[in-house]
Amino acid sequence: MPASNRSGLSRYLTRLLHRSNLNDEEQRAVLGLSSVTHQVRPNHDIVTPGDAVEHSCLIAHGLAARYDPMSDGQRQINLIYIPGDMSDLHSVVWPTAQWGIVALATTTVLHVPHRELRQLADRYPALALAFWRDCTVDASILAKWTGCLGRRKARSRFAHLLCEMAVRMEDVGLGTRESFVFEMTQSQLGDALGLTAVHVNRILQAFRAEHVIQTQRPIVSVLDWDRLVHIAEFDPGYLLRRA
Question: How far is CA 227 from the centre of its chain?
Fold first, then answer.
């Protein structure tokens, strides 16, 4: 098995273990899933709305997002996927894509067959529950993003996204909440935050001036975590992390 496949499946297992207890046999079953590796360039679709798929897409490296396309060609990003995330596990039970999934940076994607995921769920009830919890996490994040977009001011919205990404990256060993790789462009951030790229830049400049964060793309350094959390009114409970 290629190193990228092993690394991606290992990170996915880590994500599952954050919320589910799995015995050694169940863990080996996850690590033994077959997959086909694909490289996707930035701003290219991994899944296009309307696609009928027979696999779920596991992000092994890079960054991806779920998006809702608009009739005028714009899009609203409503969930960001990092390495170790199964971006469309829900497609196992509904294989026609209702949203798109796009690569935000050069991204390595593992196509994991639906057939094998169903077999594991049938054979191991604990894994079926783990997959269910995993889908619930995505639904919880989506609900939180809806609240942020609908009711929070732009500055708070942006801070909340940074807090979320910091915690999620830390959880899978891809940095710490004080320093992590975040490869989104200002235009992509605008698609996620419902803002123009100009507005995104203005907020970034303000955060830098206030010594809340420092950026040297692709690294985000959080200089004042408590201040960022205060601006965001961030409570990580919606990420459904076990203490």
Answer: 24
Amino acid letter, 20: S
Its pTM stands at 0.94
Strand 179-181 vs strand 175-176: parallel, antiparallel, or unpaired?
antiparallel
Long-range contacts for 157-161 (Cβ within 8 Å, ≥24 apart)? 157/193, 157/194, 157/195, 158/189, 158/193, 158/195, 158/200, 158/203, 158/204, 158/207, 159/207, 159/212, 159/228, 159/229, 159/231, 159/232, 159/234, 160/232, 160/233, 160/234, 161/80, 161/189, 161/192, 161/193
The span from the CA of 55 to the CA of 220, in Å, is 33
Domains of the chain and any CATH numbers? 3-146 (2.60.120.10), 152-239 (1.10.10.10)
Q: How far is CA 50 from the centre of its chain?
A: 21
Distance CA 5, CA 93 (A): 23
Written as one letter, the residue type at 241 is R
| CB distance 117 to 131 below 8 Å | yes
- Report pLDDT digits (tens) over 80-129: 999 999 999 999 999 999 999 999 999 999 999 999 999 999 999 999 99
Is residue 218 reached through a cis peptide bond, with omega within 30 degrees of 0 on the bond before it? yes
Residues 195 and 154 sit within 8 Å (Cβ to Cβ): yes
d(CA 93, CA 99): 15
The long-range contacts involving 21-28, CB below 8 angstroms and separated by at least 24 positions, are: 21/126, 22/126, 22/127, 22/130, 23/126, 25/124, 26/124, 26/126, 26/127, 26/130
